[in-house]
Amino acid sequence: MSKLHILIFPAPSQGHITSMLNLAELLCATTSFRVTFLVPAYIHRRLSQHSNATSRLNHLPLRLHPIPHGPHEDIRPGSFDVKDWLDSLSSTAQPSLRELLADDEDPIDCVISDGILSFVLETAEEAGVPVFYMRTLSACAFWVYFCLPHLIQSQELPFDCDDLDLTMVNLRGMEGVLRRRDLPRCCRHGLDSRTMQTIMHQTLQTPRPRGLILNTFDHLEAPTLDLIRTRIPNLYAVGPLHAHLKTRLTGNSSSTSLWEEDKTCLKWLDDQPENSVFYVSFGSIVRVTAEAQTELWHGLVNSGKRFLWVVRTDSGGMEIADGGRGRVVGWAPQEAVLAHPAVGGFVTHCGWNSTLESVVAGVPMVCWPHFGDQQVNSRFVDGVWGIGRDMKDHCDRVVVEKMVRDVMEDRSCEFQRRARDLAKAARESVVEGGTSYYDLDRLIQDIRDVCS
Ligand code: UDX
């Protein structure tokens, strides 16, 4: 039987590519599918240069397909406008997409589109090809975005930023949990915010495709997943995808990095005592000001803890030198770092991949969120899951020192215990009998059914 041909289109950014490439590999590991994975040419080049994706994919029926890109598509931290980014991507990628969808020699049976690329949905619908959506964020952050129109209708948005500690009352399922300051940062900028309008427009399209795939697991987000199902009944919670990949595919550990990984930091970690190092990283987009970086540095040094800090060359801030207790790298092999026994805490921006990677490794977090879903994730890490502390808008040296000590010093501390319990639940969800294992099988069967 010939394999069904799936086209996967992620938004061209590290966080989106990582999780959608993991899904692509999982689908290719079955005998049913082969995948064409669309990325702009500059991402294709960086994946070939820095990740082991191309060699790893050689043994799978998975092809990275480069498409042209426009001037606004490479994310430059600090000057990033989500609307320009998506508009530019849509105008340059659509012709290639149409061509691929019209190719009778090598027809596409099904599309899995990033759920913030509604032009992919429209183009595939025009071509009569079934579409599934995948969102690369948490269920809780997705639900907040989904509820924004309701918050506007009930006049809880826009709000006065003088009192950001007021709790939300019209956010179903999260009443009393989220404060104004825990909403995506764009909510602080009034209803005309381009980011808010764009994200709201994209999110409102989510009920249109055949189903929604989320990189999360039932044990972590069951109440929110149930709420989403009331509006989008066909939901697949298949995460954590990187853990899922490890259980279903054996072989070399994967890297999907767009930057060169500095693996020497693993050797440095080997020389540090168990649970003694804080890993510090803010993902691929966040820009850190010199002032904030100084506060973080003082907070870490004053805590007396060792640290391994990722400072991307494009992340702003200042140069930080390696020292006795600290090591600085440009880009780390993050999954391996978090799994290292020397690492006992993670100062993170709470991007969803980083959060999930920390959950799977059982490492408690100190959260310093910047924008978007990170604001919501960090509130859940602290106030709901109890596996870390949320700095939110207060990054100063005293707060950093206190939170780092809170998370790492008290060995009997609940953070460690809950982090270990959640890590166990995450691992159980992706093995046979687990909820994510079941949902992935259901997704595979449903894709087969819509294609037949
Ligand atoms: C963005 C958003 O910020 C995030 O909230 C959204 O859910 C997806 O898109 P990003 O900011 O890059 O992503 O954060 P994150 O989702 O955490 O993804 C970063 C990825 O880069 C992680 O998989 C992490 O392991 C990897 N990484 C980061 C490295 O491999 N090495 C590093 O040094 C830093």
From TrEMBL:
The protein's Enzyme Commission number: 2.4.1.-
MF terms in GO: quercetin 3-O-glucosyltransferase activity; quercetin 7-O-glucosyltransferase activity
Alphabetic keyword roster: Glycosyltransferase, Transferase
A Pfam family reported for this protein in Swiss-Prot or TrEMBL: UDPGT
InterPro entries attached to this UniProt entry: UDP_glucos_trans, UDP_glycos_trans_CS
Full protein name: Glycosyltransferase
UniProt similarity note: Belongs to the UDP-glycosyltransferase family.
